Amino acid sequence: MAGKQRKNSNGLYEIRESEIQGRGVFAARRIRPGQRIIEYAGERISNKDADGRYDDDEMDRHHTFLFTLDKKTVVDGNRLGNDSRFINHSCDPNCEAVIEDGEIWIYAVRNIQPGVELAYDYQYERTSDPGDEKLYACKCGSPKCRGSIMKLPRKPRKRRRSKPLNSVAGP
Ligand SMILES: C[S@@+](CC[C@H](N)C(=O)[O-])C[C@H]1O[C@@H](n2cnc3c(N)ncnc32)[C@H](O)[C@@H]1O
Ligand SMILES: [Zn+2]
After folding, report:
1. Is residue 152 in a domain?
2. Which of 55, 60, 95, 149 should be mutated for ligand 1, with most atoms under 8 A from CB?
3. Beta bridge partners of 31
């Protein structure tokens, strides 16, 4: 295999260059659905501190290692983090991130064969700035790609037409 690669200690995955973006995490052995893979570790900081560390206005392409844990706390995988910070986003993911007792854990949601890249859906909150579409463009390459690493825009709620009481169905 070309390029630098690094296996983790339990041989479950390896880090190498990804076709999605930068480095990625790839299965080194078969991983089963429901298998817990790694904690998304990192320094716990406030939203305000996170905004100070990463300024979207300074980036051509969004690139951070942040994971929103709750309304107040963000985990920065770039400090005190581990290999989980290299897991890329996919719109058709084979993993999911689950918050358990205040910790973020990455689980497989499918059978993952050796050599396949691990990915979960980042589901970043959508911003109202149209310029952010380019900043958050998705390169996951899936046929189901929604084109963005942000969540889909919320569908406007349909207004329910009220039916008159005792209405009769049919033409
Ligand atoms: C936690 S890092 C993932 C590791 C990253 N590949 C690296 O080498 O640093 C998150 C960043 O990776 C990039 N990224 C991850 N998935 C992506 C995708 N599907 N499309 C475009 N960029 C992606 C974005 O820049 C995102 O901010
Ligand atoms: Zn995508």
Report:
1. no
2. 149
3. 112
